[in-house]
Automatic annotation (TrEMBL):
Boundaries of every Cas12f1-like TNB domain copy: 278-344
Identification of the protein by name: Putative transposase DNA-binding domain protein
Species in which this protein is naturally found: Clostridium liquoris
A biological process term (GO) from this entry: transposition
Family annotation (Pfam families): Cas12f1-like_TNB, OrfB_IS605
Length: 350
């Protein structure tokens, strides 16, 4: 819950400034109980205690990530943060087309998985969030991993911009979903609505403040739904791509250790890279490999996969980013990204 998270973060900052100490989850939990009994904060009893305590644990995880090199925890904005909350795991159960959540009760739901959820009694880390269109319940369940007979070939995957993924198997190459007519039309519509919303804000400006009217609220709702639709299309495309590659059953999958945060510093390509979702692709391929018993290999970031000739092994040091066709002195000619996928597939084998 956003309020408790922000309150706990403010208490942590105050505690460090006064005593140079970080408060534990237990200490913050005790202070939260006092806060709930304070006049004006009685409404906190309307929310599950497990939901409030989980917000404190989320902050504690954010601090641990900060000590491990991530950024310092930030206050959550009402406008920018995604509406989400934790739901107590032992109060969740499914019955017919309904799910029971603590303090909320039975809610009509729809599941797309071929799993009988009514037979499951233990759910891990249940989270409820709003995706811009509907509320989604995300849970973890235990499942038996089936052993899969793998094929005797290595799959090299090179992520790109013109295409999402280029592999050493031509049938597994994947297009860039952002270049399809459907996504282009939706992106064009989104830009038009954003410009329209911006103009309305300027028209309703009074002094130094901007006035939000009902028509602006309707436009923002449409914009939010379009953002959600585009996000789901891209996410689904990545899921289908990673599923197709894992379904080919290679005995191992090899990818580069991409530094996406560094790639995003390029102002000309940052938007395109963000839309491709390289980090999402990487995380999905990792857990799907683990699930199917496929070995996942990440080569070092500075491995010259594009500059090395996959035919003779010669490294072409003067290869530029603008050179899309790889031409080697041995006579080998190949697409730059396809050549990189061949080298990744053979990494550590020759």
């Amino acid at each position: 819950m956003r309020f408790v998270y922000n309150w706990a973060l403010a208490r942590q900052i105050d505690s460090y400034e006064l005593n140079s100490k970080k408060l534990s989850v237990t200490d913050l939990g005790k202070e939260l109980t006092v806060l709930k009994n304070t006049k004006g904060y009685e409404w906190l009893y309307e929310v599950s205690n497990a939901t409030l305590k989980e917000s404190i644990r989320d902050l504690d995880k954010a601090y641990k990530n900060f000590f491990n090199g991530s950024g310092f925890p930030k206050f959550k904005s009402k406008k920018k943060s995604e509406p989400r909350f934790y739901s107590r795991y032992d109060r969740i159960y499914f019955q017919d087309n309904f799910v029971n959540l603590e303090k909320i009760g039975k809610i009509k739901c729809k599941a797309d998985y071929d799993i009988d959820l009514t037979t499951i009694t233990k759910f891990e880390n249940p989270r409820v969030y709003f995706n811009g269109r509907v509320w989604v319940l995300s849970v973890g369940i235990e499942a038996n991993i089936k052993t899969v007979k793998l094929n005797d070939f290595s799959l090299g995957i090179d992520l790109g911009i013109s295409q999402l993924a280029i592999t050493n198997i031509d049938e597994l190459d994947t297009k860039n979903i952002n270049k399809t007519n459907k996504v282009k039309k939706l992106s064009k519509k989104l830009k038009r609505l954003q410009r329209q919303c911006s103009r309305k804000y300027i028209m309703n400006k009074k002094g130094e403040s901007y006035q939000k009217t009902k028509s602006i609220a309707k436009l923002e709702k449409k914009i939010k739904k379009l953002h959600s639709k585009l996000k789901n299309i891209r996410f689904n495309h990545i899921h289908q791509t990673t599923f197709k590659m894992v379904k080919a059953k290679p005995y191992r999958i090899v990818m580069e250790d991409l530094k996406v945060s560094n790639m995003m510093k390029n102002k000309h390509l940052s938007k395109t890279i963000a839309e491709q979702g390289f980090n999402i692709f990487l995380n999905q391929i990792k857990y799907k490999c683990e699930k199917n018993g496929i070995k996942f290999v990440q080569v070092p970031a500075f491995y010259p996969s594009s500059k090395t000739c996959s035919h003779c092994g010669t490294i072409k040091k003067d290869l530029k980013l603008s050179d899309r066709i790889y031409k080697c002195s041995c006579g080998f000619i190949c697409d730059r990204d396809k050549n990189a996928s061949y080298n990744l597939a053979n990494y550590g084998l020759v």
